[in-house]
Structure formats: C-alpha cells, structure tokens
Amino acid sequence: MTRLNNSLAPPPVYDRGQPCGVVHLGTGAFHRAHQAAYFDALMAAGEAGWMIQGASLRSPRVAEQMNPQDGLFTMVVRDGVEDREQVIGSIKSVLVAPEDPAALVAALADPVVSLVTLTITEKGYCIDPASGALRTEDPGVRADMADLSAPRTAPGFLVAGLQARRAAGLAPFTVLSCDNLPHNGARTREAVLAMARAVDPELADWIAEHGAFPSSMVDRIVPATLAEDVDALEASAGYRDEATVKTEPFTQWVVEDWFAGPRPPLERVGVQFTTDVAGWENAKLRLLNGAHSALAYLGALAGHPFVHVAMAAPGYRELVQAIWEEAGATLGPLEGFDRAEYCAALTARFNNPALQHKTHQIAMDGSQKLPQRFLNTIRVRRAAGLAHPTLSLAVAGWIRWQFARDDTGETYTVDDPLAGVTGAIIARHKGAVRPVTEDILRLEQVFGTDLPSAAHFVAEISGLVEALVRRGTGNLVAAFAR
Ligand code: CS2
Which residues line ligand 1 (CB under 6 A)? Predict the structure, then answer.
C-alpha cells in the first residue's frame, strides 16, 4: 500500500515551502496532535512563516515514519462515536540529532527561526524532579558542559543554538516548553542558564538578559499510536501512514505572553495568551494528570489495561472524585475556570472508549511525575492541616508499582529512570514491604527532604502499600464505591 505523501494527500491550503519559523524538539505523538495542529490551523488561516522543523533527540524512529511521507501525517480525532481524519502539513521534516548534531544546531541558528518548542518529556530536561536543578551528574549533561561541539542533551542543544545565534549577531529564539512540568518556562530557563554558565558565563548573561522562556499549559490526550490504529486508518483512508496519531476533540494551550522576537498569532486559532500560567498549570497537573497517574498505577495493578476500562471498574470513578476533592481544595480562584465543570468534562474525557489509552503508558516515568501530580498537592494540604488519604493511596500505588508484578500475577518492566534504584532497594530488602517503602520514600530527588522526615506521612504511605499488597488493589479501590 502506498505511503502518505505530498501527491496523495488532499493538499493543505497553504504553501508548505514557506519558511520554518519554529524548530521543535521531540516530534512525538503529543506534539503532532497538539502544537503541530495549532500551527497547521494558523497557516490555514493565512499566517505565513510558521512551518516547523522537527527534531528527535534520541531515536530515528519518528524521522523514519515521517520523512518518507514528506512530513505529512493524519490526525484522527475520536469522540467515541465517530472518527474524523485530518492531514496535517505543518511539519517540514524531522532531523535525528544523534546522527547529525551539527544539522540541528544549524537549524536552531537559522535567522528565520524565532521560536523553539519542546515536548521532550519530563526527563528530557535533565533536571532533578523535586528541586528543578540541572543534574550535573548526568553523563550527557557533563559531556555537554565540557564540550558543546556535538551536543547530547536538550539543554545542550538549546545553548549551542543560542551560542551560534549570538556569534552571528542574531536575536535569541524564544524557548517554549510544552511539557507537564510546573513552571515549565522557569525550569527550562534555569536548566539552560546553568548549562550556559558552564560553557561561557557571558553567553549566560546574554541569554538571561535577552532570552524568553514563557511557561505554558498544554492539554490534549494523545495515547501512543498502536499498530491497529495504523491498520484501521489504512483501511479507511486508502494509504499507509506510519506517523498517524489519534486524539480526542478537546484541546487547550495557555501560553505566558513573553516572547523574545515575533509572537505567532496563535490567539487566532484558540490559544490563550496570559501573564500568569501558574493557575492553569496547577489545575491541569493536579486534576487531570494527578487523576491520570492514580488511575494508571491503581488501575494497572488491578489488571485494567486502559483508562476507560479502569474508570468503569468498581470504585475507580469515586477514587478519581476523591482525588479531585483533595486536589481541588489546593487551587486558588482562576478566571474562566469552573472546577465542577472542568471535572465533569474530565470524567467524560477519561471515559472515551475510542482512545484506548493504556494505563501502562501513563505509568511510565512516575519518579519524574510524582512531585507535580501528587506531592506538591500533599504539601499544600499538610501546610493547611488537611488530610490527604486518596493522594497518599496514589503515592502508595506508585511504590507498589515498583515491585514489577501486578495483582493478577503478571510481570512487567518498570519504565522509569529510577527503576534501577527502586529495583535495588527491593532486592536488598528481599521484597519486605515496609523497609522497601521507607527507603523509597528517602529518595530526595522525588520526595525532597521534608516529606521523608514527616513521620506521619511515612507511616501512612507504608500502611497503604502494605494494604495494597495484602488486600489487593482492586479490593481497596472498590471500597471507594461505598
Ligand atoms: C498523561 C499525559 O502520560 C501521561 O502522563 O497523564 O500525557 C496526559 O494525557 C496529557 O497531559 C493530557 O493533556
């Protein structure tokens, strides 16, 4: 079957040969169904110069999927009743950074580029999840700090690109993080400045003075594409698209209005520009992503493969409600945000049966996600003297997950940068739940120093992990239904 390409697809209504004003790092499914879709709509609305030069920082897989298709891909929007297919043309091509790091640095230094967007996942920032500090002990970070001629990390590429621009007398590009981190702009800036300072302190000063690192809140559920999704599209569209993505109708992007150069007029296609993103970030991270991770660990442990399946199992809907009650109370007022409406919409989004969102996918990289999804919320509640039993159960779920065997007896690989560390703790204590839990809670890069020294917190989590093991996750969650 023929692959999707320029001559096959219904041609986009704009010229795909126009300049790439944007370089994007991490051209995975989420980017394609979110930012790439917004830029596609922007150019379709007549705004020129916002094509995207994509780049992958690790594997050549996405380039192999997209480049033979002239950068085109089909976005399939599934509302649970019908599928709507749309060919998106905003990505020119995808560079593979490890194969040719200089090509990516050259792309970043191109005078037509004014914006660099990032979806590199939490761990791509090479920062400590609890403190946000650049992890200078990371081998890639260390290599980039010593020599930037062939960068390896995202902060390294950003600094190399900014260095080349400064040398050429160009303005810096705006760096726009689109990952689920709190204060993602400030955290990116901190990582970039720490890298730049090691390379050239004057460069760091120049970036600090002239650079822009807006924070942004991004939201759209985009499960990993499965082989059957590619086959289903082929059957309905009549071409093969290895880069297709599936998503939901809902989409949201709130961006801090802080740009070093020209700002893409994305407000024309539904993006909200604001002076303060923090309220939206907290609401989204604590309500959507918090509930997602709770469903992921407590759902997957009970053997539920998908989010919508977990939502239909006894007690899970009530579990999610309880998370929302506990997290909701930590959020301040936010203009245009109604929590009850937001959570009702989230319930419908999680129930969408057509997304087939795997609990195992959301369970990935929990050590990077826990602080913003649960622990900061717990801290706010503790400071106010409020209990947080459901958030604690979710944290306990993550610890129970480290044992790599679910309640049905299935084994799985714990996909997390700290899996080696938690695995070694479990081996050292021969799986004894309480000492394992206590040692895991001492991991400062996740739990900071405050939570491990709070005796009540440690006792509560230990008791919950033991209960999950003894009574079974599904049974414990079912109790929420009563
Ligand atoms: C999910 C997110 O995999 C995960 O961790 O919670 O990718 C989630 O689907 C998005 O943030 C929704 O906007």
Answer: 180, 219-221, 288-289, 292, 361-362
